[in-house]
Amino acid sequence: MIVSQELLRELLDSGDVVIDPLDDDQLQPASVDLRLGSHFLKVDENAVDSISLDSELRYLDIHQDEIVIPPHSFLLAVTRERIQLPANMTAFVEGRSSIGRIGLFIQNAGWVDPGFAGTVTLELFNANRLPIRLSAGRRICQLVFAQLDRITATPYSGKYQHQQAPVGSRVHLDRT
């Protein structure tokens, strides 16, 4: 079941769901808009000749309130908001339609597991032929919440739990 604005308000008021900071105008009928933070990661293209799933990838760490994503370029970003989900709720990360219409694709594997706590790392791809300028604080994506049929016995406790900044891929830590 997709969670309505009314139920989400109740869950926020009770502390069962945490979104911090949160302004009332971020609440939508069936989602919550999240804003862009001011911390970014870019693959250090001068440090490697290819990307491997078995090796840790090096990133350039960028802290600034405004960033330009060149055409056909990829960048990791972070939400301003920290979220925390209970063990009976999940969330889908979706790009806002207005942002997608300018050619900016937003993803985070599309999913936030039950029990996750932290900021959300966003994968941004400029599919346009023109650069896209982004400013921290701008509504960039939305979370759509769904309730599980029961509390999961194994809430998320993985390698991205409690992240407070954009976190690069940790796929090299996976068991093969």
Could you explain how this protein is built, in words?
This protein is mainly β. The protein has a single domain, classed as Deoxyuridine 5'-Triphosphate Nucleotidohydrolase, Chain A (Distorted Sandwich), CATH 2.70.40.10. 8% of the residues lie in helices and 39% in strands. The strands form two sheets. Strands 1, 2, 3, 5, 6, 7, 8 and 10 form an eight-stranded antiparallel sheet that branches. A two-stranded antiparallel sheet has the order 4-9. The longest helix has 10 residues, at 5-14. The termini are far apart.
How would you sum up this structure in a few lines?
The chain is mainly β and about 180 residues long. It has helices spanning about 5-15, 95-100; strands at about 20, 30-45, 60-65, 65-70, 75-85, 90-95, 105, 115-125, 130-135, 140-145. Strands 1, 2, 3, 5, 6, 7, 8 and 10 form an 8-stranded antiparallel β-sheet that branches.
Instruction: Compute the CA-based radius of gyration.
Output: 17 Å
Total number of strands = 10
Query: What's the total helix number?
Result: 2
N-to-C series of helices and strands: HEEEEEEHEEEE
Helix content: under 10%
Domain count, please report it: 1
Strand % is 35-45%
Overall mean pLDDT: 94
SSE class: mainly beta
> What is the general shape?
globular
Top CATH class? Mainly Beta
